[in-house]
UniProtKB/TrEMBL annotation:
<dbReference type="GO" id="GO:0009398">
    <property type="term" value="P:FMN biosynthetic process"/>
</dbReference>
<dbReference type="InterPro" id="IPR015865">
    <property type="entry name" value="Riboflavin_kinase_bac/euk"/>
</dbReference>
<protein>
    <recommendedName>
        <fullName>Riboflavin biosynthesis protein</fullName>
        <ecNumber>2.7.1.26</ecNumber>
        <ecNumber>2.7.7.2</ecNumber>
    </recommendedName>
</protein>
<keyword id="KW-0808">Transferase</keyword>
<keyword id="KW-0288">FMN</keyword>
<keyword id="KW-0418">Kinase</keyword>
<comment type="similarity">
    <text>Belongs to the ribF family.</text>
</comment>
<keyword id="KW-0067">ATP-binding</keyword>
<keyword id="KW-0285">Flavoprotein</keyword>
<dbReference type="GO" id="GO:0005524">
    <property type="term" value="F:ATP binding"/>
</dbReference>
<keyword id="KW-0548">Nucleotidyltransferase</keyword>
<dbReference type="InterPro" id="IPR014729">
    <property type="entry name" value="Rossmann-like_a/b/a_fold"/>
</dbReference>
<keyword id="KW-0274">FAD</keyword>
<dbReference type="InterPro" id="IPR023468">
    <property type="entry name" value="Riboflavin_kinase"/>
</dbReference>
<dbReference type="GO" id="GO:0003919">
    <property type="term" value="F:FMN adenylyltransferase activity"/>
</dbReference>
<dbReference type="Pfam" id="PF06574">
    <property type="entry name" value="FAD_syn"/>
</dbReference>
<keyword id="KW-0547">Nucleotide-binding</keyword>
């Protein structure tokens, strides 16, 4: 069963590689600092806006983005997304800080672009912004940006202490824009969520992630060094974004996409993300000293008891 899933998903990766080649769509990115610059409002065009943090851009998020896209097409208005950075937990003292992401901001931008988003608003989530009331947010960031239609999920909250919800949004709109609330998307009776995916990364259960993400968990990076261990195995040193949420420490079976070619390999995930990693690729005879790489996590290779043994092996080498 797992093998079948693996092969079909591997085919998906091939499809995604092709899609990426076509995905040369244009997307305007507007960084918004609080208080909002009035010229941004003046230059805005009528739009539909999907709202949320969207870490991972998982299946539930995609349902929202697809809904907004369809509305934009039907109503012939601009298709926009508004997201926030950093994660609100970084400025709200009572919550656990989320500063490592399933999709760091540059990756999230790339995904939005591939999904056809025409304009992306990134609001700098700072303390002043977090203290803005739900009414003020709607006046300045929704009505002010000429949004004619808001799309968000059933549990979207906004405004000081997260006091606004989707019912409040209808009331705050005061008839000036439409509101579409997307219902809960579930897997095995559980909400598909970024938190659930983070939990799978923490436990190392990466094989479950495709059910939530529609793809394997992946990390993108730039190759900076390459050496051959033998005629059949390459070790690549790769620079990655410091804010990636790495899976639990241990050895993982990966599939890597490099220069439109697919390789199988392994990646020993360290305890912390230092911004540089090493992956082993099999059957890759070519020299790759540079270039972009995407690593897809298939499954954890060893049980926990074997990790220490594996580490000792490295020390000996
Ligand atoms: C103007 C504004 C103020 C916010 N203030 C707070 C806050 O005081 N406390 C809080 O926990 N979240 C606050 N949030 C965060 C929201 O509750 C929510 O996490 C954010 O809008 C992203 O939505 P999502 O998590 O559903 O994607 C605020 C959001 C906005 C837009
Ligand atoms: N499973 C889901 N079904 C429908 N809408 C969803 C789902 N998950 C998230 N959303 C919506 O997507 C937008 C972004 O939500 P958010 O970034 O909080 O995702 P999340 O997966 O709930 O994250 P977290 O687990 O960190 O709370 C919001 O409008 C939210 O209501």
């Amino acid at each position: 069963m797992m093998e079948t899933l693996y092969h079909s998903l591997k085919d998906n990766i091939r499809t995604l590689v092709n899609l990426k080649n076509w995905g040369e769509e244009k997307m305007e990115v507007v960084n918004l600092d609080h208080p909002i610059d009035l010229t941004v409002s003046l230059n805005s065009e009528p739009c539909v806006m999907a709202l949320g943090f969207f870490d991972g851009v998982h299946k539930g998020h995609r349902k929202i983005i697809e809904t907004a896209k369809e509305i934009a097409k039907k109503e012939k208005i601009k298709f926009t997304v508004m997201t926030f950075f950093p994660h609100p937990s970084n400025v709200i003292s009572k919550t656990k800080k989320i500063d490592h992401y399933i999709t760091p901001l540059p990756v999230k931008k790339e995904i939005f672009k591939c999904l056809g988003v025409e304009k992306l608003f990134i609001v700098n989530f700072n303390t002043d912004f977090s203290e803005f009331s739900h009414q003020q947010f709607v006046e300045q960031y929704i009505v002010g940006l000429k949004c004619q239609h808001v799309v968000a999920g059933f549990d979207f909250t906004y405004g000081y202490k997260g006091q606004g919800n989707m019912d409040q949004m209808v009331s705050d709109s005061n008839g000036r824009f439409d509101v579409t609330t997307v219902s809960k998307l579930e897997h095995n009776h559980e909400k598909i969520s970024s938190s659930a995916i983070r939990e799978m990364l923490i436990t190392g259960e990466v094989q479950k992630i495709p059910m939530y993400l529609e793809d394997y968990y992946s990390i993108k990076g730039k190759v900076i060094r390459n050496y051959h261990i033998n005629h059949n195995e390459n070790v690549l040193t790769i620079k990655i974004d410091h804010s990636y949420h790495l899976p639990k420490k241990g050895l993982y079976k990966i599939t890597a996409e490099l220069d439109n070619s697919i390789f199988d390999g392994t990646f020993y995930v360290p305890l912390h993300n230092t911004g540089t990693i090493e992956v082993h690729l099999l059957n890759s005879h070519i020299n790759y000293d540079e270039g972009n790489i995407t690593m897809y996590f298939i499954e954890q290779e060893f049980g926990n008891s074997q990790i220490e043994e594996y580490e000792n092996m490295f020390i000996v080498i």
